[in-house]
Design brief:
39% of the residues lie in helices and 11% in strands. With 274 residues, the protein is α/β, with parallel strands linked by helices. The strands form two sheets. It has a five-stranded parallel sheet. A two-stranded antiparallel sheet has the order 6-7.
Length: 274
């Protein structure tokens, strides 16, 4: 058994919530592991299709069978690799305001003590519209039309469903019904988890962790394998602080042409985007 649909992205754009909701639908089989990354990671791809099919062995009579690996959208080799094995697969892509998406990814690394730079420093270091698998893609991951065009070289437009993350938040029932229609499954399915956030952002309260997250330059002094020793004690919800105006203006100018192309392609104004 091989999947007949894939959630290909985007990272930090609701794919975890989407995965958990689809997993509950009786006519949909989702691989137990989120982010299999078969078409994304070279070592996984090198193991061959047999290793990939093991994730779908339990799929029986479900109408839709899939997996969610948000790294697929931007990997330069993923479209060709997917088409070679799954030429008729349906693809689901969620897109999010690229500035908010970048901030979310940056702070995800900061809270895991894996980012020693401030946001302004990271912007200077990593701002690029070219994604490279071996580099941090805080900003390159948000130039969605570059990757959409690449997928359209291999797949017909009707095989690609693109939905803004903001619609998941504002109108979840409509959002999921659109996906169910696309997959050809029962559109009347509903769950209270339509409104559930499955990947809430939390940080630890202990003073050692707090010192490291507030002063990221000190993270470099601690070996990566030892940083998890600071993950202890009570947790609290975390909201990313606002970025400075200079950084925001730089990102607005950077993303403006890419966002305009996406608006035209989708026929949506994406009014909530910066």
């Amino acid at each position: 058994m091989l999947p007949n649909f894939l959630i290909i992205g985007s990272q930090k754009a609701g794919t975890t919530s989407l995965y958990h909701v689809l997993k509950q639908h009786p006519q949909i089989f989702m691989a137990d592991k989120k982010e299999i990354n078969f078409f994304f990671k070279d070592d996984a791809y090198a193991r061959g299709p047999e290793a990939y099919t093991e994730h779908f062995m339990d799929c029986t009579n479900q109408l839709a069978c899939g997996e969610a690996s948000p790294g697929y959208i931007c990997h330069p080799e993923a479209p060709a690799r997917i088409h070679a094995l799954l030429p008729d697969v349906k693809l689901i892509l969620t897109v999010r305001d690229p500035i908010k998406r970048a901030i979310s990814q940056y702070w995800d690394n900061r809270r895991h003590l894996n980012e020693p730079l401030t946001f302004a420093q990271a912007l200077d270091a990593y701002l690029s519209d070219e994604y490279h698998p071996d580099q941090i893609g805080y900003f390159s991951r948000g130039v969605y039309m570059r990757y959409i065009k690449k997928y359209l070289e291999y797949f017909p437009r009707e095989n690609l469903l693109i939905l803004p993350f903001e619609e998941m938040i504002a109108a979840p029932e409509t959002f999921y019904k659109c996906i169910f229609t696309f997959l050809g499954v029962d559109t009347d399915f509903s769950t209270e988890d339509f409104d559930e956030a499955f990947n809430p952002t939390e940080i630890w309260k202990n003073p050692f962790y707090q010192m490291l997250i507030r002063r990221p330059r000190y993270q470099k002094k601690i070996p990566t394998k030892l940083r998890r020793l600071f993950y202890w004690g009570r947790k609290m919800r975390f909201s990313a602080p606002p970025i400075d105006e200079a950084s925001r203006k730089k990102l607005e100018d950077f993303y403006s042409p890419w966002n305009d192309k996406l608006r035209k392609f989708l026929g949506k104004d994406l009014a909530e985007w910066c």
